[in-house]
Amino acid sequence: MTLKYCNKTKNYLYYFQMNRLKNLFFLGFIILCLPALPTHAQNIHIEIPPRSIALNEPFSITLEAEGEEIVSYTPFPDINGFKKPKNGLSSYHTEATYQGKKKKMYILEQVYHPLREGIMQIPAFEMVVNGKKIKSVGASIKVKPYDKLRGELKEPESKETKEPEKKTIEVQEDAFLAIDINKTEVFVGEGIAVSLSLYVATTNQAPMQYVELNKQVEDISKKIKPANCWEENFNIAEVPDAPRVSLNGKYYFQNKFYEAVFFPLNAQDITFPALELKMLVSRKITGRENPNEFKEGEGEVTFFRSTPKTIQVKPLPEHPLRDRVAVGKFFLQEGIPYRPIKTGEAVSYYFKIVGEGNIATLYEPHLNNSTNQLLIYAPNLQTNITRNQGSVTGSAVFEYSIVPQEAGTHLLRHHFEWVFFNLNTQRYDTLRPTSQLSVSGESYKGAGGYDQKTHPLYKKMNQKIQAITEEQKEQRLWWFNILVASMVLLLLLSFIRRGKTKSVK
Questions:
Q1: Domain boundaries, the chain
Q2: Which residues are within 8 A (CB) of 133 and not within 5 positions of it... i.e. 6 or more apart?
Q3: Tens digit of each residue's pLDDT (9 = 90 or more) over 98-131
Q4: How does DSSP classify residue 447?
Q5: Do domains 41-144 and 326-459 have the same CATH topology?
């Protein structure tokens, strides 16, 4: 009897727990699905397009309501670094078709004008629209310098005023293409900074647009490079923000497309040919439009051509190393342990050439090792090149391993020297070390810096070579045959499995 009631109690508890688990699972499912359920506020949202704008370019914050007319709303926020222009708030509606259904969108737009350059933060804000709270997480707007292809910012026109009559006027572009060089006369091996830029006057009124700019720049790079020069190309990936420059009392925006430094390899003069850049230019604009606004599909194909430039190349003065010396402005940095050293101890020495010139082709220092007091191994080379502001600078590090053979003070200036043509003095100059090695210990004469009895190479050479017996040969051959047979078997199994798989499909 007691056992019967116990079993019933267990059954009741089991069903109770199962029902409870079902209820909890259903409740959890409802909670998880709640965020996906539609709410009344979801058909109204705030849009802040993430973007970067020029100092003379506006941007807008829009309030969009789907299928619900905007009847009441709180003001758009004031943003630090921007102003709300007069008549900058407008409203309109549009109709769109989505998946065969027509949806009506009501839009409220607030225009903002930037006041300064920099990265402006739009903090999170909240608006009450039709009695509902609508939140925005804010955004970040990058304000870039003044854009020469755009006009000055104007106040939005009042919707109540009558639009002025369109008046078409003709304008002429005020721009030119030019090759810029920093020198007209150089020595062999001396760097020449060359750039190609389109200069557009700040007062230009004709809208202009590039045509396949990347392809044009690639073709220009091939035409501009002289055959007798080493080129260090700055590889301009995209046209940077154009600086404002003054030429003959007039201001222009300099759009630089190509920049490089050339190092002449011989005394032949260098000629840069006339180059051209294709653009679309709109010479007919309406008086009420932004004078620098370019409309798609408008404009005439126009070629801007540069003037050829010639550079005279002078040979270097007579010198035994004239055909291989570097030309530039260089100085020496060294690296060596400043501590007592034992004979036979290997130390690292860094001969670092730093300066301006053709870093990529610097030859290694001349080595004088006739005394055999120092065993000096061939160096490892590491170069670092920087291309900036029309010059090529950097360093070439020659790392030597030195093993002293004799005790004493060894002046490294007696062992290393590097000759170059110094552009500062217009003469040949020599870089010599100032470091020295203080070595103690007995005379050390070995092979490669090791005594013959202890050198690893000699240990290997002195080892007796043991002949392989016929039995060992047969055993190795047997294992080799087993390995080959196993590989063939695995390949056959793989092909059979693939065939079965294809037949099943």
A1: 2-35, 41-144, 168-314, 326-459
A2: 41, 126, 127
A3: 444 566 788 888 999 998 888 888 899 999 888 7
A4: B
A5: yes
Neighbours of 318 (CB within 10 A): 7
CATH class for domain 326-459? Answer: mainly beta
pLDDT in tens, 152-181: 877 776 654 444 455 566 778 889 999 999
Beta strand pairing status for 408-411 and 168-170?
Answer: unpaired
- Of 61, 74, 69, nearest to 44 by C-alpha is 69
The length of the chain, given as a count of residues:
505
Distance CA 472, CA 480 (A): 12
Q: CB count, 10 Å around CB of 123?
A: 11
The answer to whether the beta carbons of residues 52 and 142 sit under 8 Å apart is yes
Give the whole-angstrom CA distance, residue 386 versus residue 441: 44
CB-CB neighbours of 84 under 10 Å: 16
Per-residue burial over 243-255, b = 16 or more CB atoms within 10 Å of its CB, e = otherwise: eeeeeeeeebbbb
Residues 306 and 286: their CA atoms lie apart, in Å, by 31
Ramachandran class of 29: left when φ > 0, alpha when ψ lies in -120 to 50, beta otherwise: alpha
pLDDT in tens, 311-359: 999 999 999 999 889 999 999 999 988 788 999 999 999 999 999 999 9
Do 436 and 335 touch, CB atoms closer than 8 A? no
Global pTM reads 0.55
Question: CA nearest 203: which of 243, 175, 169, 183?
Answer: 175
Report the CATH number of the 41-144 domain: 2.60.40
Cα 85 to the chain's mean position, in Å? Answer: 38
Alpha helices in 200-354 (DSSP H): 213-224
Find all residues with CB under 8 Å of 222, minimum gap 6, and list them.
none
Residue in 181, 283, 276 with CA at minimum distance from that of residue 226: 181
Both tokens of 18, joined, read 């199962």
How far, in Å, are 80, 90, 134, 145, 339 from residue 125 at the CA level?
13, 20, 9, 27, 66
CB neighbour class for 50 (10 Å; exposed up to 12, middle 13-18, buried from 19): exposed
Phi, psi of 36 (to 5 degrees): -85, -10
Contact 255, 242 (CB under 8 A): yes
CA distance 229 to 208: 34
Q: Give CA–CA dist 459/454, Å, rounded.
A: 7
Contacts of 374 (CB under 8 A, 6+ apart): 402, 403, 404, 405, 410, 415, 437
DSSP string for residues in 429-445:
EEE----EEEEESS---
Tokens encoding 155: 């106040």
- Which of 157, 158, 153, 171 is CA-nearest to residue 290? 153
CA distances from 80 to 144, 363, 471, 484 (A): 16, 57, 91, 77
Q: What is the pLDDT of residues 452-486, one digit of tens each?
A: 444 444 444 445 445 566 677 677 788 888 888 88
